[in-house]
Design goal:
Strand content: 15-25%
Distance between the termini: 11 Å
Radius of gyration: 20 Å
Oligomer: single chain
Largest sheet: 5 strands, antiparallel
Number of helices: 5
Helix content: 40-55%
Order of helices and strands: HEEEHHHEEH
Number of strands: 5
Low-confidence stretches: none
């Protein structure tokens, strides 16, 4: 079995450090701007929590029939930290064994976790923005309020921007790093 190169071993340490930032910084943020909120409102999604102007956003969302955002409703806040810790521990094993095949498998595991994470986040946004209370005080026929997964969207008089925060950029950077080094290791055959 082929040995992992020095850049491969260094990338394992870097990936683990990158993922460590998820406990220090928010992963994602959703910013809302409207004439009645000139300073804007924001919501930061952490690895295991949701913070920011959530009570105000919940109050506004009540009028259009959206469910409240509550930390307790997200099983992801339990499973994602565990998945990241297990992934980091698996990285230590790959670092000790120094085998390319294990590195490839480790990278594939991360890609699967990341793909599922983004899919899960999209589905949460979809359900949140489409399953509205039919008895809401304000109803706009045919309107849904799904925030964008990534980027900008206009929802009634609100401008919504959804993007990675510091931890999210490190999360994305981890994927880019692992895939890049996997390609490098593959070509070094």
């Amino acid at each position: 079995m082929k040995k992992l190169t020095k850049p491969g071993r260094i990338s394992i340490v870097m990936a683990m450090l990158f993922l460590g930032t998820l406990w220090l910084f928010p992963m994602w943020r959703i910013d809302l701007r409207a004439p009645q909120y000139p300073g804007g409102l924001s919501m930061q999604i952490w690895l295991n929590d949701i913070k920011g102007d959530v009570p105000i956003i919940n109050g506004l969302n009540h009028y259009i029939g959206m469910n409240e955002i509550n930390k307790e409703d997200f099983s992801e806040f339990i499973y994602l930290p565990i998945a990241m810790l297990l992934f980091i521990l698996l990285g230590i094993v790959v670092l000790i064994l120094k085998r390319k095949l294990y590195y490839y498998i480790w990278t594939a595991v991360f890609i699967c976790i990341a793909a599922f994470s983004f899919y899960d986040f999209y589905m949460w946004e979809y359900n949140y923005g489409h399953h509205l209370d039919p008895h809401a005080p304000i109803q706009v026929p045919g309107m849904s309020y799904q925030p964008p997964l990534f980027g900008y969207k206009k929802l009634l008089n609100f401008e919504v921007l959804s993007q990675p925060d510091v931890g999210g950029w490190f999360y994305i950077g981890t994927g880019v790093l692992l895939v890049s080094i996997t390609i490098y290791e593959w070509k070094k055959k």
